[in-house]
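> call design_seq(struct)
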């Protein structure tokens, strides 16, 4: 039986949802076109290869650009300034400047966190995460001071793919980091390294004593879950549960509910196959591994994840939104307890690199690539 049909049966989708979530080409057949969007998408600015954004308490934005720039942008005035003090990044392929996150107590300590691809010896690279104090001047410019690297991928390896390096502060005040497997497969199961894992740290980079593998020593003591491929989205729901999305190989993109100490199986299992055509056993063949709550074949290429709790779109409170790269879509996810399903897909016509909820409840999207638009999504007026 073809894998998309097996997926539909496994998820228990209704016939109506079959066409939107499991058709041979759902993006082409069922995605909501702009004329039917329930929102208006307003272009606010453009950036060069943006990767991530984070709002500051004053509702201005920090935006990372992959080649190695951190931009302070004020949507109200349109003013933008490049922030000094950004480290040199290993730019190329999927590598470069990555995510940016604002400390929960930024108003008091001024701390921001950022990830980037860092060069190593003998043509190797790996993700690094640093924190620094953001000092802004009266005009909106500024610089990063007292920068300190608090985490690194280990080992550094060759290649320019699958860094992951998404950052998120959780309800517990801990810093969560996605560390992808750098297209090396087996490290996702190897606890002697931190590739292919989700990492949990204290805000200063030290190790929480209650991490599930703390007794195994470094680097296992950083790890919260393992067996991941390329994790590009992290978000907590209203119940304090961590969800992530990751790119599968040839097929098998995933949305996962993260369990403490859980092993998600890659590369031993996947609902996709290797790019050279070799089969990878499906999740249902190895029940000891945690299976995804949603799996996509054809893929959506998930770039980011946000769980909505705002007031502008009350009908979407508690839903998740995934930015799609190859699918050029914004994908809405509905939850029912521990279950999840694709509920709707919006045809954005461009690769979507990042999605976040703004302070006013609007959804903000960053397109991918050169001349990428920053879009603000607000309810469409009749």
């Amino acid at each position: 039986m073809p894998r998309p049909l097996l997926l539909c049966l496994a998820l228990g989708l209704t016939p109506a949802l079959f066409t939107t979530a499991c058709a041979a080409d759902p993006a082409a057949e069922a995605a909501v076109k702009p004329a039917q969007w329930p929102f208006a998408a307003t272009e606010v600015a453009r950036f060069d290869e943006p990767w991530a954004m984070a709002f500051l308490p004053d509702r201005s934005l920090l935006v990372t650009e992959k080649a190695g720039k951190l931009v302070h942008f004020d949507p109200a005035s349109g003013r933008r300034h490049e922030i000094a003090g950004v480290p040199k990044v290993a730019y190329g392929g999927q590598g470069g400047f990555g995510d940016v996150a604002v400390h929960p107590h930024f108003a008091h300590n001024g701390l921001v966190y950022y990830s980037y691809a860092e060069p190593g010896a003998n043509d190797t690279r790996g993700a690094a995460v640093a924190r620094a104090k953001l000092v802004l001047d009266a005009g909106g410019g500024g610089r990063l001071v007292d920068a300190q690297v608090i985490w690194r991928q280990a080992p550094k390896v060759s290649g320019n793919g699958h860094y992951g390096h998404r950052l998120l502060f959780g309800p517990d005040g801990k810093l969560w980091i996605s560390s992808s497997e750098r297209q090396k497969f087996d490290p996702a199961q190897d606890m002697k390294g931190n590739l292919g894992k989700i990492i949990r740290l204290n805000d200063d980079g030290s190790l929480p004593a209650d991490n599930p593998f703390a007794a195994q020593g470094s680097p296992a003591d950083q790890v919260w879950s393992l067996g991941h491929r390329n994790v590009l989205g992290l978000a907590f729901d209203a119940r304090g549960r961590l969800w992530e999305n990751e790119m599968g190989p040839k097929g098998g993109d995933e949305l996962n509910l993260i369990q403490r100490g859980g092993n998600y199986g890659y590369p031993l299992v996947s609902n996709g196959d290797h790019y050279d055509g070799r089969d990878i056993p499906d999740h249902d063949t190895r029940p000891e591994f945690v299976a995804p709550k949603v799996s996509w074949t054809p893929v959506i290429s998930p770039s980011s994840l946000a769980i909505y709790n705002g007031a502008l779109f009350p009908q979407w409170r508690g839903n998740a939104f995934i930015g799609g790269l190859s699918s050029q879509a914004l994908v809405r996810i509905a939850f029912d307890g521990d279950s999840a399903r694709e509920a709707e897909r919006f045809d954005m016509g461009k690769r979507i690199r990042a999605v976040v909820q703004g302070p006013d409840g609007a959804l903000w999207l960053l397109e991918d690539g050169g001349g990428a638009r920053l879009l603000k999504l607000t309810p469409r007026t009749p």
